[in-house]
Input
Amino acid sequence: MPGARRSLASPVVSGVLCPCGSPQGSAVESSSSSSGGGSSSSGGSAGSCGRSLCEASEQDRRLRTLFQKLDVNRDGALCIHDLAVGLGRLGLHRTELDLRKIVKAGDKDLDGQLDFEEFVHYLQDHEKKLRLVFKSLDKKNDGRIDAQEIVQSLRDLGVKISEQQAEKILKRIRTGHFWGPVTYMDKNGTMTIDWNEWRDYHLLHPVENIPEIILYWKHSTIFDVGENLTVPDEFTVEERQTGMWWRHLVAGGGAGAVSRTCTAPLDRLKVLMQVHASRSNNMCIIGGFTQMIREGGPRSLWRGNGINVLKIAPESAIKFMAYEQIKRFIGTDQEMLRIHERLLAGSLAGAIAQSSIYPMEVLKTRMALRKTGQYSGMLDCAKNILAKEGMAAFYKGYIPNMLGIIPYAGIDLAVYETLKNTWLQRYAVNSADPGVFVLLACGTISSTCGQLASYPLALVRTRMQAQASVEGAPEVTMRGLFKHILKTEGAFGLYRGLAPNFMKVIPAVSISYVVYENLKMTLGVDSR
Output
């Protein structure tokens, strides 16, 4: 009979989270409540069990019991061999790759094994991911997953299966080695899976990055603050196979163009303050705007913006392609990449993209600093530089620019991922969608931190790019320029122009987000 089916997972595993076997605070009823007859009372008690009945000491005792059962060699830590043997004894057979992923996900001190605290943290984080996956599969929001929902979810990810194949997935799934026991996920034979069945089956089974998180938490594509040094975003299998990825990039490029144009006066003021401001010439924000308008009229506020917008497309395209190739070299798939691996791939991709378009960076600085009538346009500026200074002039400031990629991209990525994971752990219950204000706040904070860390290198880069355009300016190296600034202006001199740079972050992030969302709808991108 279908009702006779049962999970081969040990009761110790199934009852980890609370005495009745249901998760703490779960709003989803257990499978036994739907089987009818005499089982309804037990289902009711399971569904009503909450955090108030799960004492902290009892929870700790159960977790320690499970930990001790898995700790085969009794050394107080779980290695891959412990998990393989211990889970096998409990009826849960996992492949070596799965076990490596479990240890990799929970191993905070990077010693190749899990102590008790790491084990508990992994289980707690794991259940939250399982709940998000369950909610994303439960299209009907009825607390159960049926065959049609599995078909639709796999179709969204680019995998086409029949409803009969989906029913087989529901009916039973063989895990571990081919000679291992068959574990039934659909315990009560209803051809649906509720939360408890889902959790019990997938407990201590690695969960990859959730497509829903990748969909909602894009950062580099959406937010443009004028410095394209961030680590590129990931795209789901569905976005790749349906061609939505390039629409996201086009929308992001358009948003960046509008955002940079709207904040161009602040960006030009920043460049002027980086190059001309000093102790003897203490340029303020109002004075800087007044000087620009007096010298060239209101239109002069946008000098250098044309080339700044033009370089978005080639830089974004080159960086994305380079990132994908480097990512394949580092790991077999996106889920295997850790934060430091993403940083490495993103930094290398940024370096390749910056090297390719760096002459446009020099042109942007020279155009922003030009006086009225000095150049007739971008091409005239490029010809003058090439004729008077040679090809090497197009790579002035290249070294500090490359060195600035690591602190900017690293801190931006670390802060954004920290804020994202904190929100997901505390507030993500039914969806990974953070909402517009949380997303804008995370993007603003991470971009600000990244810019603050790399700003001295950005200032030195800009001064080296502008050397030939400043009369009487000596040719100095990056090291010499750092020494000169510290000697004549002090540490504060390395942060000239920081005020207008920070002033443009919030409007730049907000404008790029609004334009990005509107362009997505125009291009037919499904926001979900």
The CA atoms of residues 411 and 450 lie 5 Å apart.
